[in-house]
Amino acid sequence: MTSSDFQQVKLRDGRTLAYAEFGDPKGDPILYCHGTPSSHAEGELTVRGSCAGQLGLRVIIPDRPGMGGSNFLRHRRVVDWPSDVLELADALHLERFAMLGSSGGAPYALVCAALIPARVSVVGVIGGVAPIDAPGLFSARSRFLGRMVRVAAPIMRGLMCLQLLALRSRTVRKSMANAFPEPDRTLFQREDMRDRFIGCLEECCRNGPRGAVWELGMFSQPWGFDLTQITTPVLLWQSARDGNVSSAHARFLASVLPNCQAHFYPDDAHLSVMLNHHHEILGEIQRRSRGPGTHTPRPNV
After folding, report:
1. Considering the entire predicted model, what is its pTM?
2. Of 132, 221, 248, 296, which has the fewest beta carbons less than 10 angstroms from its beta carbon?
3. Cis, peptide link before residue 183, omega less than 30° from 0
């Protein structure tokens, strides 16, 4: 499939929610929360070449509001996401499902475990960001930049549009690899990997950068739910060389989540964790999701 190959459902409030599917259409369902800024096109980067189909997994990647093919939602918060997930799951006749959140998608996977635990069998987190109120993780500079995204959103939208224009240049695309630590740097020296990575941002902003900028601003605010109250099993994977989200975030999440199993990879970076360990990650999510009382498809009536 291509980034334009997505489906849509109409939500009760009139908005459209877009999503893409990868793997086995009849497989065990995983709802994958993409990073920030990103979109359902992330599946082309992290899932398409994986063993999802071979394992019998159905990976569903919805676009969050204002990103990809999903309509913008004014004043949205992290805690608003589970209601969209429920409507999507009901439309797809899914009774229970696993959640997987990558990077900035982590809070969206976790909030589903917090607010709709009866529907979520297990949560996976890959290189996930911690909340802004986690002690000692965010510098004064990062907090200031987060607030600036919120109060100067038009400027940030303009800068993101300029970034997208710059990324049309093959020269810029080739040089971007130098900004990443190994082994991501080597991965981004491959043209297909660069194009898929940039495609996530391009698809995210297919209707403009408003949704992406809004979500970036949300990271400077508390998530609105209590991580310590999540009893759903959480599987966490983190790399030591991650240049986007430091391993301190993973250590914090592992320390406050009551039922968390953490895995740390000393030789991987932000992107390479999923690409190098996809069989282990997806296989473990599937194994844990098949516990007592897990996925039973709803009758298609």
Report:
1. 0.93
2. 296
3. yes
